[in-house]
Every structure is written in structure tokens, then in C-alpha cells.
Amino acid sequence: MDASRSSPSIVVGIDGSRSALEAATWAVDEAVSRDVPLRLVYAIDPDATTGTDNQSAARDLASAEIAVRHAFMAVESLDKPVKIEVEILQDNPVRVLREASRWADMVCLGSIGLKHSAHGRIGSTAAAVASSAHCPVAIVHGHAPLPEEQKWVVAEVEGSLTSDGALRCAVAEARLRHAPLRVLTIWQSRYTDIHDNNAVAEGNKLAKARLVRRLAELKRRHPDLDIQAVAVHGNLVNYLAKHAGSIQLVVLAHDRVNGIHELTGPPSCGALRDSNCSVLICAPQNVL
Questions:
Q1: CB of 270 within 8 A of CB of 240?
Q2: Are the C-beta atoms of 157 and 212 separated by less than 8 Å?
Q3: pTM for the whole thing?
Q4: Cα–Cα distance between 233 and 221 in angstroms, integer?
Q5: Highest mean pLDDT: which of 177-186, 229-238, 254-263, 270-279?
Q6: Buried-most residue among 26, 98, 146, 175 (CB within 10 A)?
Q7: CA atoms within 13 A on the CB side of 46
Q8: HEC readout, 243-275
Q9: Whole-angstrom distance, CA of residue 42 vs CA of residue 47
């Protein structure tokens, strides 16, 4: 295998969509912060080519080259010190990106692929890669390359080791983006407490107190980072829908990957559908 393909990089899946361009510009800071290349990868799917003759193959290759060139120019326009690599392959996109994730520091994808742009839902490629990748996967949703220092990075934590990995990812992202970090703990009422406002308030107080104790050491290690504990009664989706305008990134443990459809899914139910908030799925190996 080419050594450049097995060396650390930030990989961006390119497919000609606007969403892929947003993923490419979002990924630049990730590459710069790690001092690794930004690799733009376009996979020409043999099962989705426009024909079988040489002329059709040339047309598919030309489309790939145009898409990659546009992404390259979008990254260059940011004028940041990042090395850009380009790769066009003849293979299934999910297989290509899954293999790239074995060595990549992160894989970044647009939330809506070219084929799904008319449907307003997360692309099948993004969903498949997020569920099977060997590294963190960022699903970029409506990113604009403008400062977002005041918008939060949000992490959901539970008692598991997977949520510890998500918390570490969230701290790194908040520091990179000079953003406040909001750490959520989700709790459920007993059935009899559903309509009892006093019971809910008391439950929030207790859950938050437990989380504050858990975060005490983290706050001592990062005194310059604005870290706040938040207790959420009910579910994550409702909280994110309510605060979507204040959030730039949601960090989830890998075992929550199935929840991405609830966040960036169809316009009728995606909690983050009207925001510029992205989702980062942490990799299984982030768990110690």
C-alpha cells in the first residue's frame, strides 16, 4: 500500500455535493491542529457509473476531478497552513472510507450526500461509515467557515467507558475551537413523576450534582475551558432541538451512532435540521 495512504491524515469524503465542500472546510482546523495532511478522497462507485464504455468512464472521472478541484479550492481559500492531498479511486465509497479510517485521525463527511440532497436526510454513505469506522467520524451539517467561538460543544455522558471516550473527544474539540463545553447527563422520571414538577426539579438537582462531582478533576486540569454540567430530564433530542442555535458540535460515543438520524435526519424530525451544528461520533478505540 502507498505509504501516504497509511499515514495519519484527516480524510474527507468528496462526492460533488455542497455538503462535502462544507465537510472539507470544517476539517481544515482538525488537520492543522494535528499537523497532518487533509486528504480529499473521491470514490467512483463501479455500481453507480453512468455507463460501461470508455466515454462513460471518462465522464465519471471528469466529474470526480471537478468535484475534488472545487473542494481543493474551497480549502485553499481559507488560507490556512494545511497540506492538501487528493485521491480518486474506483471502488465503493463506504469501503474506501472504512479502509481509510484504519489510519486516519478522523473521517469527515457531509451530512447530506449528492444523491440525498433533495430529500433532506443524512446520506447512506455517512451513516454506514459512522457505524463502522475505526476512527472518529464527523458528520458536518451546514458548516460555514466563520468563527463560532460562542457556540457550544456538547457531549452526552453516562456511566460507561464509551462516554468517557466521548468526553475526552469533546474536551479536545472545545479547546481546538475555543468554545464552551456543555456536558449533559440524561435521566428519566419514574412513571408517577412525569407530571410532578417538584420531582423533576429535584431529579435535575441530584443528577447535576453527581455530574459536577464527576467533572471536578477535568475542570481542574483545564481551568481555561468553560465547562458546565447540565442535567436533562427526558432525552437528548429534545434538549438539542431547543438549543440548536447555540450549539456548533455534538459529540457522541460510538454506541450512540444510531442516534445520528434523530439529530441530522429528515426536516420533519431532525433535531439539528435548521442549525449549523455538526455531529462527531467517537471511535471504539477511544475507550481505554
A1: no
A2: no
A3: 0.86
A4: 28
A5: 177-186
A6: 26
A7: 6
A8: HHHHEEEEEECHHHHHHHHHHHCCCCCCCCCCC
A9: 15
Question: What was the pLDDT predicted at 143?
Answer: 63
Q: Is the pLDDT of residue 270 over 70?
A: no
Taking residue 130's Cβ as centre, other Cβ atoms within 10 Å add up to 24
Alpha helices per DSSP H over 154-196: 161-177
Three-state secondary structure readout of 23-86: HHHHHHHHHHHHCCCEEEEEEECHHHCCCCCHHHHHHHHHHHHHHHHHHHHHHHCCCCCCCEEE
Residue 164: other Cβ atoms inside 10 A: 18
Q: The dihedral of CA 44, 47, 51, 54: what is its sign?
A: positive
Rounded CA gap, 124 and 113, in Å? 8
Cell matching residue 201: 426539579
Specify which residues 279 forms β-bridges with: 139, 250
